[in-house]
Structure formats: structure tokens, C-alpha cells
Amino acid sequence: MRRAAGRAAFRAAAMTLPICLGDAWRQAAGRIERLDARLLLEHVCGCKQADLIAHPERALSEAQADRFEELLARRAAGEPFAYLVGSAWFCGLEFAVDPAVLIPRPETELLVDLAARRAATLDGPRILDLGTGSGIVAVTLARRFPQARVTAVDASAAALEVARANAARHGVAVRFLEGDWYAPLADERFDLIVSNPPYVADGDPHLSSNGLPFEPRDALSDGITGGDGLACIRRIVAAAPRHLKPGRCLLMEHGYDQAVEVRKLLAASGFSETASWRDGAGIWRVSGGRRPPGAE
Ligand SMILES: C[S@@+](CC[C@H](N)C(=O)[O-])C[C@H]1O[C@@H](n2cnc3c(N)ncnc32)[C@H](O)[C@@H]1O
What we know:
A seven-stranded mixed beta sheet has the order 5-4-3-6-7-9-8, with helices on both faces. It has 296 residues and is of the alpha/beta class. Helix content is 42%, strand content 18%. It is built from twelve helices and nine strands. β3 (126-130), α8 (136-144) and β4 (149-154) form a beta-alpha-beta unit. It starts with a helix and ends in a 6-residue tail after the last strand. The longest helix has 15 residues, at 2-16. The chain binds S-adenosylmethionine. S-adenosylmethionine binds at residues 102, 104, 108, 131-134, 136-137, 153-156, 159, 180-181, 196-198, 218-219.
């Protein structure tokens, strides 16, 4: 009721007088979260919070008012903020995102930090990122380790387009390959394999809330390959020994309740030093293991 009234007021104001920053912000804050309203307004008008406060009387152009109304309506319908503005932050870097890729999650920074600790002990490591999506993991590692040779695989051509643009944006050379997990790699071996694969079980109720319906289903859920949430992880772990040099590590992000199962899978594939790590929210979020140094 309040939202509909806000929308009507915004339209009426925009149709009669040029709407000003202060009114646009106030009316939008009645329809979506106040912070989102401010950030969307700044995005559309190319201004900063200081401008909104110092010059609330500044008028939006007709094009800005139309664009703001369009984005407001999409946000009010649940579309994630990152898709509306076309970018998201990860590990202190801004990445382009669109609906072909998963929006970066803060918990994935744990995967990068753990990978970075291992990469730092290696000279010019060969790193493989499986299921690269927007390229956040591969690009961040390539930025931190200029001597590393980073390869990134994804099954989605559209996601790889976004990832390539992000590598160019951050000035790093990453080799991007399209295909099903290790399929494009023949017998290549790496010093470190990292992955944030789809790990939400098909039919999990979370898939229908919190903006997830707007994200690519193949990036979130392993429904196509098995559906219990562990299908992709099983495949990645099972074939990892063939693509990891002896003594090197595999690290994978996973769901809040999957750590024990993932460590069992790692052990069954011959990994030693299996372990899990908690993210900033205290959730066991990443597990990994080492290929025994004496392995063939
Ligand atoms: C959870 S998203 C992770 C994206 C990115 N690495 C991140 O952390 O934001 C999983 C990614 O795996 C990709 N993917 C799904 N199935 C795949 C497969 N069989 N082979 C390769 N990539 C796959 C999806 O397209 C998606 O980009």
C-alpha cells in the first residue's frame, strides 16, 4: 500500500515538475531499503552522497528520472542490486556482473585467502579455477601473484565473456577455457586447484528467495548433474588427482552442512591433510586436502 503510494507520487511528481534529488531519495526510500535507494540514485545521477545532502534541490533530467524509476521498480521486485548497477566488489576489486554470472559472495574471499597462502609458498605456480563465473577468484589470484599462470574453466560461454572482461579490466592475463570441469585440460597438471562449484541441492527452498531466482540456476544448483548438492563436488574431487601435481592442494567452497561429506570425498580420493575452514560468519565454508607428495 505504502509502496504503491510512493510509486504513484514519484510518477506524478516526475510527470509535472522535474523531480529533485532530495524528493527522489525520500520517495524511493519508501519503496526499497534506504541505502539501496541512495546508491541507485547516485548510480543513475553520477553523484555522491555529499551531493544528495548538499544539493537536494538539484533536478534529475527526464532520462535520469525514467532510469531511476525503472531500476527502483526492478529492485522492489527483488532483483539483486549488483545486476541493476552491473558491478560488485570482491576482495577490494570491482567486477562487472550480469545475469549470466553468480554475484560474488563475501564468503568466497575465504577461498581466495586460503589459496593465496598456498600460492605464496610456490614459485610461479600453475593455478586452476574451476567454475570461474565472473572470474573473481582467478582474477584476484592473478592480481596477487603476477608470476602465477592462471587457468579458469566454466561451462557457460556467457559467463566466460564476463570473466574475460574482468581480467582485462584488472590488467591480468588469465587463460579462459570453456567446458565441463576438467574436460578442456587433457592431462594438464596444476600446483593448486580452487573451485566454488554449484552446491545448493535441487529443490532447496533457498533457491526461491533472496534474489536467487535472478541468478543463473546452473551456477547455484547441481540439479542437472545429480541434485543432492554434492554432485559437482564429487566430480571435481574424483578427477582432481589426475590434474594436481604430487604434494599440491585442492580447495573447494561448499554449503554450510557439507564439510564432513567433502572431507570424506577427499580422503576417498587419496588426499591427505584434509581440513575445513570457517568463514567470517563462523560457517564451515571451505574444505581441502593435499595430494600425497609421493603420489604418481
Ligand atoms: C557458484 S558459481 C561460482 C562462480 C565464481 N567462481 C564465484 O565464486 O563467484 C559456479 C560456476 O560453475 C559453473 N559450472 C557449473 N557447472 C559446470 C561444469 N559442469 N563445468 C564447468 N563449470 C560449471 C557455472 O557456470 C558457474 O559459473
